[in-house]
Amino acid sequence: MSKFALVIPPNHLHRHHHHRHHLFLLFLLISALNAAPSSATTTTNNDQKFKEAPQFYNAPTCPSINGTTNEMCSHEAVHVAMNLDAAYLRGSMAAIFSILQHSSCPQNILFHFVSTSTADHRHLRLTITHSFPSLKFQIYPYDSSVVSGLISTSIRSALDSPLNYARNYLADLLPHCIHRIVYLDSDLVLVDDIAKLAATPLDENTVLAAPEYCNANFTSYFTPTFWSNPTLSLTFAGRKPCYFNTGVMVIDLQKWREGDYTTKIIEWMELQKRIRIYELGSLPPFLLVFAGTIAPVDHRWNQHGLGGDNYRGLCRNLHPGRVSLLHWSGKGKPWVRLDANRPCPLDALWAPYDLLQTPFALES
After folding, report:
1. Is position 289 within any domain?
2. What is the pTM of this model?
3. Kind of pairing, strands 78-83 and 208-210?
4. Of 148, 165, 237, 272, which is the most buried if we count CB atoms within 10 A?
5. pLDDT in the model for residue 281
6. What are the residues facing 188 on neighbouring strands?
7. Mean pLDDT throughout 320-342?
8. Which residues on adjacent β-strands are paired with residue 180?
9. For 209, phi and psi rounded to 5 degrees?
10. pLDDT tens across 53-105, in order?
11. Residues pairing with 182 in the sheet
12. Counting beta carbons within 10 angstroms of the beta carbon of residue 135, is it exposed (0 to 12), middle (13 to 18) or buried (19 or more)?
């Protein structure tokens, strides 16, 4: 992608009003060139510069996790797991910012970022530290080769990224002292205290909690081959399976390890390589293992689908009800649409959390 530099003499804009108009058009042109094509957005390079976010402090009533022997293992903390890569870094930064801004105990949030072992971890670490100097976080290298041979092509190429499958291995990647995490995708923002979500009750037999959508056509997530095979379709016998979105989950990692759920998910992926039983990336194996057995979470914690469908990414409205988390799942990402000057109305709710440092500063 070509790089452009626009240098504007400080007094030039005030001299000629019509020059300001031409420069503004030039700025829009350069922005469009830098934003296209959408499949290779500005988020794929290491030249992004992000602003420093404000510092957020705990309320006086927050328990202290400082001074513990191993702070990253604190059970008083809220543990958040996210994937981290160059393609979605801008979304991740906005998500982190939103989590901190709406938390009553932001200094008690510990972030666990999973990134492929081939990613530039030094750059990712420096970028996060620059914008969030006091953030408590670790980056865990993920060997994507363990899953690359199990990935089947899906309806959207972005869904086939090996990093999408890292959530299958969180129980192995993160320290075993961590018992509960909130897993979040990178294309969302919170407008409520994440501690409320993290406190979702999980009974002794429940491994995972997520918002369920029982009005969705559950059968559509699997192929006719799956449903016509009695051995396979009996998987859901005795369960009332509902669709849930894996971009927002509360997971008991201790129970996950005890039940060896990583192996259960992998077994379905191995079967998918032999017999095509689903079409949609990393979601169906989670549905096969967990649908009908999870703890429900209020829908306000995943206003999903704001990125539209997986084909065209058309604009969508909010679902009825309260909102605690906005999720741009689907093809359309807010930063791509904003850069292309084709935003959806709800993208304006994401924009205040965008920390990208724009190279152009036109005076009004």
Report:
1. yes
2. 0.83
3. unpaired
4. 165
5. 79
6. 327
7. 93
8. 252
9. -130, 140
10. 999 999 999 988 865 557 888 889 999 999 999 889 999 999 999 999 999 99
11. 80, 250
12. middle
**Is 196 domain-assigned?**
yes
Distance in angstroms between the alpha carbons of the first and the last residue of the chain: 29
Q: What are phi and psi of 212, to 5 degrees?
A: -100, 150
Tally of domains in the chain: 1
Tell me the C-alpha to C-alpha distance, in Å, between residue 245 and each of 3, 298, 303: 38, 13, 10
CA separation, residue 69 to residues 66, 74, 157, 303 (Å): 9, 9, 43, 38
Could you count the other beta carbons within 10 Å of the beta carbon of residue 16?
Answer: 11
What CATH number does residue 123 fall under? 3.90.550.10
Q: How many residues comprise the chain?
A: 364
Between the alpha carbon of residue 308 and those of residues 142, 164, 286, 324, 333, the distances in Å are 29, 19, 22, 19, 9
Q: Which residues pair with 210 in a beta bridge?
A: 296
Structural domain boundaries, residue 216: 78-299
4 lies in some domain: no
Structure tokens at 347: 């993208």
Residues 6 or more apart in contact with residue 90 via CB below 8 angstroms? 42, 43, 48, 50, 335, 354, 355, 356
State the Cα–Cα distance between residues 280 and 160, nearest whole angstrom.
9
DSSP string over 285-354: HHHHHHTTSSEE--GGG-B--TT--SSS----PPPSS--SEEE--SS--HHHHHHTT---GGGGGTGGG-
Contact 76, 174 (CB under 8 A): no
What is the identity of the amino acid at 261?
A: Y
CA distance 269 to 274: 9
Asked if 136 contacts 111 with a C-beta cutoff of 8 angstroms, the reply is yes
- In this structure, what token pair is assigned to residue 115? 């990134």
Q: 348 in a domain, yes or no?
A: no
Under DSSP, the state recorded for 87 is G
